[in-house]
Amino acid sequence: xxxxxxxxxxxxxxxxxxxxxxxxxxxxxxxxxxxxxxxxxxxxxxxxxxxxxxxxxxxxxxxxxxxxxxxxxxxxxxxxxxxxxxxxxxxxxxxxxxxxxxxxxxxxxxxxxxxxxxxxxxxxxxxxxxxxxxxxxxxxxxxxxxxxxxxxxxxxxxxxxxxxxxxxxxxxxxxxxxxxxxxxxxxxxxxxxxxxxxxxxxxxxxxxxxxxxxxxxxxxxxxxxxxxxxxxxxxxxxxxxxxxxxxxxxxxxxxxxxxxxxxxxxxxxxxxxxxxxxxxxxxxxxxxxxxxxxxxxxxxxxxxxxxxxxxxxxxxxxxxxxxxxxxxxxxxxxxxxxxxxxxxxxxxxxxxxxxxxxxxxxxxxxxxxxxxxxxxxxxxxxxxxxxxxxxxxxxxxxxxxxxxxxxxxxxxxxxxxxxxxxxxxxxxxxxxxxxxxxxxxxxxxx
Length: 446
Fold this sequence. Notes:
With 446 residues, the chain is an alpha/beta fold. 32% of the residues lie in helices and 20% in strands.
């Protein structure tokens, strides 16, 4: 028995070890000029030019080609020069809805750290559980996703989201903001009549009503506690309700997961009645609620286009058209990945989610903005991320083509001016098996 347990432990350790990224982290930023590239600043039309950033990873100058050609040699002294002729420079993509670093292998419970045991845990925040050595991180940033918002899952109030840069030795190195907002999972008000459901419809409706009442109870308790603590500091501190203070006071938004029209409508009505600052995450039926969203200036984080419509009466292409519908209506929105616990390895597909909407009326420049400056503005970092301009962070990448096209490759990337090693597990496996078949060919076995 002891031998068997030892063997199982060894296998588990080997599994977890194989899930650790061995890529070196980026060195400190150095003064750099990236020149000759086509610049997609997203503040102007694309043009050829150069970008300079300093040791703090902050962009200093953005020049067109004529100004670069006339630049005195003295301005280049002490800089690393990166010749990007023939390449395209884009702001780093932002994944606004992920569990990046919280889950590695869905089938291995020890690598799933995206939810707590209880239904109400606002005191936790995602950043502290992010694994900086996740193999999913380099795979994702190889496709230009350099900043992510990490949202916990599970329960009613699963915790607080965190904004993370996609590089660092520790989760502290990676953290941009420990708390980007409080997360609430809004109850889904529909009856599951599928054959596998063994809960009667009336019981399902009752459960939804109970969860809805529980949300009210949680926020009522937190609000009362905060008012009492403000009046009497001797009241014992409760970390759960303290953690909700910024959301209740309007200092941080509330990310509300809601997809159906009924859920979106009830969630927005509830949040605004409490003076909260809601952001809808999901938004599948948001195109049917544009008046309400505009009335209360509620942003929508669309969780991907590679899914089926949720309503039987919906058009087959309603998901692909949703970004254009929201854009045309003037609703604030951005594109994100699906964000589920089993979708984390596929966050690299973020640019292709929005690319799928271009064929359904969405302008390509708007598509790029939806995963850069639109996402940055919704997440509260629009003053430092999302475009290429002076005084913003040097978080951008070079591509040999349009990054919304599957065949394009990200060739270089910087996060806060730190040069990123773009090696990842998938590339190593590609090299490995190419070598295998090359050896077989050389031996005449193929």
